[in-house]
C-alpha cells in the first residue's frame, strides 16, 4: 500500500505542476498534497529521474518555483498536454477491457504509437500506476466471430446510407435468415458490437448483434433515414434494446437494499424506503431480457410489484428454474 500511495501522490504532483502556469513553490505543493516538504523534494527527484522535465527558477520576488516543461515531447502536434498524454497511456488497460474484437488491432496500434511519444523512463514510471488502477473485462463476443471486412462494410453503409443485404444467424429462430436493411448506427455495448438498422419488411428498427452477421453486401441504391436514432441508442433498456419505456416497480429485501441503493442502474430510477429496511425502486425501462435478467440476478431478494405481466413472467422463470434442481426419482 505505501508504494501505491507514493505512485498516486507523484501523479498528483505531476498534474499540479502542469496546472500551475507560472510555477509553484515546494511549500504550496506540500500544502496541496498534504505531505511534508521533504516528501515533495523526494517526489520531484523521482519524477526527474523518470525523465519528466522539471526545473526550478526564481521569480521577481526571489521565491523558488518549480515548473514542468510540457513541450519536451518534440515533434508531437496533438494538442494534448503532457499529463493528458500520460493519462491516455494509462487508460489502455481500461479501454482494452471494453474493446470490441474488430477494433482490437487498431486500438493496440494506437497505444503503440502513443507509447513512442513517451520516453522509456516515463513509460517505466507510468507502468507502475496500472497496479493500482485495474479494470475487469466484461463479457464480450467470442474472438474471431466477426471479420473486419464485415464491420468495414457496415461502417461504410451507415456513413453513406447504403442499402445492405445481410445474412444473419438469428438465435430466436435458430436459423440463418436473409435481411434487406437500412443501417442506421453501430453501437458498442456490454462487450459486443450492435447494428441498429431499419428493416423495410417489418417497417421498424431492429437491433442485430454484429458477431452473428454471417455476410453483408452493399447495394447500389441508397436510403433516407425515416426513423432517426438518438445518440443514446439503448436509453430505455438495461440491456441492448430500443423498445418503448414502461413503468416498473421492484421491491428489494433489506439484506440487499444497500447494494441496490449504491448504484445508478438507470437514469430514471427512483428509490424509496418502504419498511424494515426494504426499498422500492421505480424505473422507466423497456420490458426486455436485460430487465428480466437483472431482476432474476437478485434471486429471492427482489419482488416485482408492477406491472402484473412482468411479475407473472418472473414468477414463471423462478418456478422453471426451481424444477431444474429437483432430484428426479430413482
Key phrases:
330 residues, alpha+beta, Arc Repressor Mutant, subunit A, SH3 type barrels, Alpha-Beta Plaits, four-stranded antiparallel β-sheet
The assigned structural class equals: alpha+beta
Query: Can you give the helix content as a percent range?
Result: 25-40%
Largest sheet: 5 strands, antiparallel
Share of residues in strands: 15-25%
Secondary-structure topology with pairs:
Elements: H1 2-19, H2 26-33, H3 37-49, E1 54-58, E2 64-68, H4 82-90, H5 92-97, H6 104-117, H7 120-126, H8 148-160, E3 162-170, E4 175-189, E5 192-199, E6 204-209, E7 213-222, E8 246-252, H9 257-261, E9 270-273, E10 279-285, H10 289-296, E11 302-306, H11 308-323
Antiparallel strand pairs: 1-2, 3-4, 3-7, 4-5, 5-6, 8-10, 8-11, 9-10
Helix pairs in contact: 1-3, 2-3
Summarize the structure.
The chain has 330 residues and is an alpha+beta fold. 35% of the residues lie in helices and 25% in strands.
Amino acid at each position: 500500500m505505501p508504494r501505491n500511495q507514493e505512485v498516486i501522490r507523484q501523479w498528483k504532483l505531476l498534474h499540479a505542476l502542469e496546472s500551475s502556469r507560472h510555477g509553484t513553490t515546494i511549500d504550496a505543493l506540500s500544502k496541496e498534497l498534504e505531505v511534508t516538504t521533504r516528501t515533495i523534494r523526494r517526489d520531484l527527484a523521482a519524477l526527474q529521474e523518470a525523465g519528466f522535465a522539471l526545473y526550478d527558477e526564481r521569480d521577481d520576488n526571489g521565491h523558488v518555483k518549480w515548473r514542468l516543461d510540457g513541450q519536451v515531447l518534440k515533434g508531437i502536434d496533438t494538442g494534448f498536454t503532457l499529463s493528458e498524454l500520460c493519462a491516455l497511456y494509462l487508460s489502455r488497460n481500461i479501454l482494452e477491457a471494453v474493446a470490441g474484437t474488430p477494433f482490437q488491432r487498431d486500438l493496440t496500434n494506437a497505444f503503440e504509437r502513443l507509447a513512442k511519444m513517451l520516453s522509456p523512463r516515463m513509460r517505466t514510471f507510468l507502468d507502475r500506476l496500472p497496479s493500482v488502477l485495474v479494470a475487469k473485462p466484461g463479457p464480450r463476443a467470442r474472438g474471431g466471430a466477426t471479420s473486419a471486412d464485415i464491420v468495414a462494410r457496415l461502417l461504410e453503409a451507415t456513413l453513406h446510407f447504403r442499402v445492405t443485404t445481410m445474412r444473419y444467424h438469428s438465435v430466436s429462430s435458430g436459423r440463418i435468415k436473409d435481411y434487406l436493411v437500412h443501417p442506421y448506427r453501430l453501437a458498442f455495448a456490454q462487450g459486443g458490437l450492435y447494428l441498429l438498422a431499419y428493416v423495410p419488411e417489418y417497417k421498424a428498427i431492429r437491433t442485430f448483434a454484429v458477431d452473428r452477421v454471417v455476410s453483408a453486401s452493399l447495394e447500389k441504391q441508397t436510403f433516407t433515414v425515416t426513423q432517426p436514432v438518438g445518440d443514446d441508442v439503448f436509453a430505455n433498456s438495461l440491456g441492448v434494446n430500443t423498445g418503448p419505456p414502461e413503468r416498473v416497480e421492484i421491491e428489494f429485501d433489506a439484506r440487499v437494499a444497500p447494494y441496490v441503493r449504491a448504484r445508478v442502474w438507470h437514469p430514471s430510477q427512483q428509490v424509496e424506503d418502504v419498511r424494515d429496511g426494504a426499498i422500492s425502486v421505480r424505473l422507466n425501462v423497456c420490458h426486455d431480457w436485460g430487465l428480466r435478467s437483472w431482476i432474476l440476478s437478485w434471486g429471492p431478494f427482489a419482488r416485482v410489484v408492477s406491472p402484473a405481466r412482468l411479475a407473472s413472467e418472473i414468477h414463471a422463470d423462478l418456478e422453471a428454474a426451481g424444477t431444474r434442481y429437483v432430484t428426479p426419482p430413482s
